[in-house]
Structures are given as C-alpha cells and as structure tokens.
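Good morning,

Both structures are done.
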Amino acid sequence: MGIVPFDLLFSVNKYPKAEMKIDAADFKMQGGGPIPNVTVGLSRLDYSTALIAVVGNDVIGDLGISELESEKVICDFVIKKKQSSAVASGWIEKDSGRRTMVLSRKIFIRPDDLMLSDYPIPKIIHLDGRDMPATLKLARWAKKSGAVVSFDIGSIRNDVSSVFPLVDHLVVADSYALPFTKSRTAKQAILKLKKICKGTIIVTEGIKGSLGFENEQFYHQPAYKVNTIDTTGAGDAFHVGYLYGLLKNKRLPSRMKLGAVVAALKCTKPGARTGLPNVKQLNKFLKTDLKSYMS
C-alpha cells in the first residue's frame, strides 16, 4: 500500500541557476511511487503483486493504473476518489545522474477505505507510511494474518515511528535514518532503531552501499559501479531485489546483494521503472563481468 504519483521526468545537461530558462535534453512520463515501483519490479521477477492505493478520477489516475496493469500488477484494490491524482516532477542532471523531485499530492487513503475482508492474504505487505492511520491498520492486519511486514522510508516527512514495532524488515535510506536517530553513521542509527524495531534493519547509503543488521550481526554490501543515467527510484529498486531474495528464502547478505544489483541495473536507464530487470537480465548481471556495464 502506498502513494501512486505520475512522474514527469526532465533530463537537463546542467542544473540551472535561479531565474534561468533552459531546454530539456530529454523527457519521460511514467508512473512512480515507492510501492508501485516495487510491485512492478517484483512482477517482472515473476511474482504476483497487488496494489492498495487511492487515485483521482482523472486522466492521470487512469494512466498510472493502466501502466501498472500492463506490468501485470493487480489493481483490483485501487480506490478512485473525486480528487486530483498525485503528480511528481523531476529534474535529472545527465552527467551526474543527480535528481530533484517535487511531489504534489492532496489525495489520501483513510482507514475506512481498507476493505480487509476482501484482500487475499499475501506473503509480504510492503508499506511507505505516507498515510499512517491506514498504514497502522494494514500492518496490524498483516501481523494477525501471518504476513511479513516490510517498510520503506527515504526521508523525514511525517512521523512513521509508531509502525516500527510491527515491522519485520525495515529498509530505510540514510537520509531518513541519520536525522531521525540523530546519528552520524548508519551503524549508530541501526543501534538506535533496533530499540523500537525488533525486525531486520537495513540502512541504504547510495554509492556507499548498505549496512544491515540481523540476529545481532552487521553486514555491509557495497554498491555496484555502473554507467549511471538516473538515480530516480534506486532505493525502490533496492527493495525489489531485497524482497525478491526474501521470497527466495535467502540469508541477509544475499538479500542485500540482490538489492544492490537491482538498484544498479535500474540506474542504467532513465526513470524509476525502465531499468528494473526481469529474471534473465538479473541473472546475466550476476554472472557477467560487471565491467561490461561501465561502457
């Protein structure tokens, strides 16, 4: 369950200064959102995925859902409301792959929107915490139903800590973990987070890789070096690989490696979804000399 913004992505040669006008080098439209991106990624890796979300009764909402359905994501539980769908606009600097995203969202999923008796019980429920009352309701239902709860947050927006005791796999960006815990390192942040989250904890650190903690042991996974085109959705892609490994009953080091691989592949293409691999592409990356991806 999560937000479903539609992304308008502009590639620029260099970020402009204030008051400047520039031409875009490229433009792409595609659906976004951390949870929808993960459903697409796992669908490409041959897992059945479904989305609980709310969209507006408008063209943007229709485009987003149509795109998800084309990726074989089940959208039977998406709710339409008479409001505007969420839209995100991003600028991507071509040489560096750096990006800036702006989100406009005035549509929310409420606890009463959740029809729990209609939902099949999944193996994993993946959440982004944007709408906390609904998030807590679904997470509690997951625990009672025997589903694994996975949680993603990339930056400090709203207080999501009340869901942490219900989370089995907390995979968060350092841009959230460090300021939230008032820590200087990922290790310090994890030691503080584990006081409120008894599950597995991973902090992703961009090009520095990721640090994970499970069964009282730390594991580090370096990031793979690739020809980076766009980092948009790299964190979402890490979740795809991580959850794929979890569904395959892999140990934490292997789950983190798969997360790093899928994130690297995603970064070789523009947009959050274009570079998400299928099983064949994932296995090729794992077996091929990684230097070939630098050219």
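Second structure follows.
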Amino acid sequence: MQQKVLDHYLEYGLFTYPGLYEDYIKKLPDDVRELGLLLRTNFLHRTTLDAGNVETNADLKYGDMTKMPWWRQAEDDNLPTTAAMLAEFFRRDPKGLSMGRKVEDKLVLTCRNVAILMASTLKAKGIPARVRSGFSAYFEGTRDAWDHWITQYWNSSENRWVTMDVDGSWHRTGFDMYDMPDGKFDFSANVWLDVRQGKREGSHFKNAGGFDGLVCIAWELFHDFHCLMNSETLYLHHPKITMLGNFKKLQEDKLKEIDNLATLMQNPDDNFDKLQHIWETNKEYRLLKGALL
C-alpha cells in the first residue's frame, strides 16, 4: 500500500472533522468492537423508531420506543457532520457517549452518520479509515439489496482493509460484522458494472426513497466516489447528470465514462492517482445539486 494513500485516509474531511471534540474521541475505546458497540448504543435508526417495539426491536435491544417523544424523527439533515453529532450528544446528556444513554436521548440517525463517526474516531486515533457507500442484502428478511454505508479501516499488522458495518452490527447475519468477508457488501462500482453488463438485474438494488435500477445505483456510485475522496456527501446531494430527469437522457458515451470511473473504483488504492485527478478536474462529477446547491 502506498503511504500517500494511507495518509489520505488519515485526513479529516468536512464531515469527519471532529473539531474541538478530537481529544475526546481519541480517548474512546481502542478495540473496534468495543468502540462500535459504544457508538451503536447511542444511535437509533429511523426505521426502528417508525416500527416501534416489533420485528428487530421485539427484544427492546434498541430501547423502548414508547418512551420516545411523539415529535422525534430522523435527524440526518440536522446533524450531517461528526462535530454536529458530538455536540448534540453532549447537549442531550453531559456524559457524552455512554452505554447508559436513555432511549429518548439517543440520536435518530442512519447508516451514513454511524459510518462517519466511526471513521472519524479511527482517524483521530491515527488509523486510516474511510466511509463506503453501496448496497447490502444480508439483513434478515431482506430479499433485495438496499443502499447502505459502512466503514473500512487499515489493519497495518495484516496489511489489508477491514470492512465493518457498525450500524448493522446488531442484526443476525451469520458472519462477523466487524470483519466482513469479501462479497457480503456490494460495493457500488461492482454493482454498476454488473448491471451495465447484464450480469445482475438492476431492479434488485433499491434505496429508502423508493427508487431502484441504474439511477439508484449511480447515486450510490457517486456517493462512494466522494467518500473515497474524504467527502461523505449528504444523501440528497448528487451530480447534476444523475438527477432523475437528466439521467434518463444520458447518451451511451456518458454512461461509458461512468463505466470507466466504476472500473477505477473497483481498485481504488492502485488507481488512487487517477481517481484523484478526476476529483480535481471533472466538474460534472464533483459539483453537486441539492436543496440549496
């Protein structure tokens, strides 16, 4: 592994920068499983809040949803960065992150935020880490593959990236969620190319907004590209070319350009210089559109 690649993933970005909380997260547990358990305990996924005390929360492992105020809802748009999340943890409970956090004081956030905070904490501890965006089909009761964000960190003693899913770590999957086997998480570059080549059906890949197919895969692909560049963009921010009306009009030459990007992303470490060049020069891929963008 090139040292410049590892140095890149030691750097904070806009979303992983912990601000004045850097010293605090440095002191969190060093063991990734213990750290993951601590982080996961302090979050509540919006789907759990919506479902209440049934299905995956029938045993109340996420807390008693009847104790949640009626007005609580997803907070991803309010707390998009590590610094914002940590500030809100302390605002609600002066102890900060703790195993004893009351359910009504948990943050209602999704996989992106959990992955970002995990990556940020590892970076603070001097461990190269990065967030990845793709699809998961490994949760119980899941037939299709759903958009999902996870974390990777560099294990220097084993000279490899370790893939882990902190947000999904309390689900029964049959494998170690803190050292996921290859092939369990569908990286978006592989999905894009497989669907483009007719190897897999695009309608199998979906997101929480009710979309599926190639446009949904394109959104995750560009999220992942930005993640690889340390810019873990918000869910609703996309390149102009992948917005619904524009994507339907893309000609084959533009789709082949995205094919080339995906091919590079299949091996992001060896192709780091080429990916960084695209990041620094390609306005279509770099400039995003959103509510105020």
